[in-house]
Amino acid sequence: MSVSAQSKFKGAFSLAGLFDIRPLVDSFVNDAIHMSMESAEKVSPQLLESSVDATACPLHLIVPEFDTPEFFRQTKEYQEKMLKMGNPCYFKLANNRDHLDLIEKLIDDRDEVLTYLLEHMKG
Description:
It is a single chain. The protein has about 120 residues and is an alpha/beta fold. It has five helices and three strands; from the N terminus they run αβαβαβαα. Strands 1-2-3 form a three-stranded parallel sheet, sandwiched between helices. The relative contact order is 0.19.
């Protein structure tokens, strides 16, 4: 990505993200996609080498209040990794939300998460 294109990004957002996909290999989630441990490692941001970029746009990690402890654990660990590398990274708790309605409620103009997203896209 060119420097001029990269400078246009004001924020990146993860909504209820997982950053280490390996635990899914032995779960029902993998029944349809047949992911190997090797392929899970290749798509796990927590395991990828990242470079520090002082011009990187802030990363906002948004987790629903009623998500599982695994989502919280992985999100906090990924935030720690980003901060140690010097990349701006923020944790946002989506109050009174579960994994699915985090997205479903974004159609409401008064939605707290939508407001947060729009505010942090302005830069």
